Automatic annotation (TrEMBL):
GO terms for molecular function: ATP binding; ATP hydrolysis activity. Transmembrane segments: none annotated. The keyword Nucleotide-binding applies. It is a peripheral membrane protein. Residues 311-346 are annotated as: Disordered. The keyword Zinc does not apply. Pfam families: ABC_tran. Keywords: Antibiotic resistance, ATP-binding, Nucleotide-binding, Transport. This is ABC transport ATP-binding subunit. Its main location: membrane. Coiled coil: none annotated. It is found in: Cell membrane. It comes from Propionibacterium freudenreichii.
Amino acid sequence: MNTVLDVRGLHKHFGKGAHRVEANAGVTMAAHAGQVVGLLGHNGSGKTTMVNQIVGLTRPDSGTITVGGIDATTHPALARRLVSLQAQANVPITGLAPRRAIELVGRMRGAPARAMRSRARELIEALDIGPWADVASQKVSGGIARLTAFAMCLARPAPLVVLDEPTNDVDPVRRRLLWTQIRRLADAGHAVLLVTHNVRETERVVDRLVVLNHGQVLAQGTPATLVHDWAGMLTLEVDQAPGQPPHWPAGITATPVGDHRSRAVVASDRAAALVAWAADELRTGAIERYELSPVSLEDAYIDLVTGHHPAAAGADADQPDAAPLDEPDTTTESTNDPAAGQEHTA
């Protein structure tokens, strides 16, 4: 397998003494040609700091970054030529229309003018931004500006494509179009590093996941392996009525996931009893809705970063890669519980 990005033992800190922050603490991961690798983590987990080091904007304290066989720590300018980046903040293109901006980026990367006119048309159509293609960028919405930045990144993509929160401000319909282009990019042989905190959307397109938390790798592997430790488990989610917190049954630990919503991961053999409990809470008005479903990738991710996941619970805090949820590349065992996936409201 052709390794396009290889990161080993990456360390980067900011500040000193009591103000010292370990942005990256021993990060090791890789991205191969033809793969979409999702870099997941909440705000402040170290994702963007890692990206800045990959593209040469920040120098690591220690560790190595290799892009296409080139050491990015000693030859950052050379390695940067092998990376196409969509940064978290849009590139200012004031005065340029999206079509012209896309064409110019491709020309700067050495593509012929005719080829770039064709490529710009292709991307504009694929992302459904035709009505704004020739409108000055300062007059388009944030979502169209974000899609323009994405198209600029894909105008003439390098072997490694890094996308930092590409769906920010993008409407749900065009998000799907964007995900399709990401998948096609990988299928064409590029390595894609997708930086995000949106677990549900990521699950649709990634081949592998790397979960960062406080600068450390908590787990990495396929989406199926991340959920694998929860095989045979179910998630019960309830929306409580205002001022009426539900009284969960003994032995059930619920995690708040919103102002009036909480969830618990439970064994499938308790499903019938918990459905009966939830139905009773619904009748009394303590809750407004409940849903029982198989454990999702989002459930596993939340439990991983909060320390409730089986892998996280057994991980050594001094070993950033102590919970590598690597192969087998298999699907999660499904539950046969008839109540799974059902939602009930008052």
